[in-house]
Design a protein that fits this description.
This protein has about 140 residues and is an alpha+beta fold. It is built from 4 helices and 5 strands; from the N terminus they run βββαβαβαα. It has a 3-stranded antiparallel β-sheet with strand order 3-4-5, with helices on one face. Strands 1-2 form a two-stranded antiparallel sheet.
Length: about 140
């Protein structure tokens, strides 16, 4: 069982692991052993997720989820299958934790009065500088 937060845990039977050859560290083991781990989780078909949780995950992790609703997390950093399996599980829990956190909506802020006043003064000053560059009238 992978614990995501205080209100959500994902049982092991909903998660599947696929093992394959890794391109990472391991020397000759890379050519012989299946140390790369791909964790698969069916977001769309999970009975442990509420509709709002499912929606948040599908929206926030859209680039990692296939059209069938399967979330993939790959780990090949370590030399052993066990370490990669644990790393994939930790990363999976972190991704879900982050996707399920409710983000506060951004509050629009206005431009402060002092900044507006400063901008107007700079415009006036610049205008006077440019006006001073004109040639005087030759009527004198």
């Amino acid at each position: 069982m992978i614990r995501i937060n205080s209100g959500l845990s994902i049982p092991d039977d909903e998660i599947s692991f696929i093992f394959s050859r890794s391109s990472g560290p391991g020397g000759q083991n890379v050519n012989k052993l299946n140390t790369r781990v791909t964790l698969l989780f069916d977001v769309a078909g999970s009975p442990n997720l509420s509709e709002s949780q499912r929606g948040n995950i599908l929206e926030n992790l859209a680039t990692r989820i296939s059209r069938k609703g399967i979330l993939r997390v790959v780990s090949q950093r370590h030399r052993t299958q066990k370490a990669n399996r644990e790393a994939a599980a930790e990363r999976f829990a972190g991704l879900l934790r982050e996707a399920l956190t409710v983000k506060r909506p951004r509050r629009k802020t206005g431009v402060p009065r002092a900044i507006k006043r400063k901008r107007r003064e700079n415009k006036r000053r610049r205008s006077r500088v440019k006006a001073g560059r004109t040639k005087p009238d030759e009527d004198d």
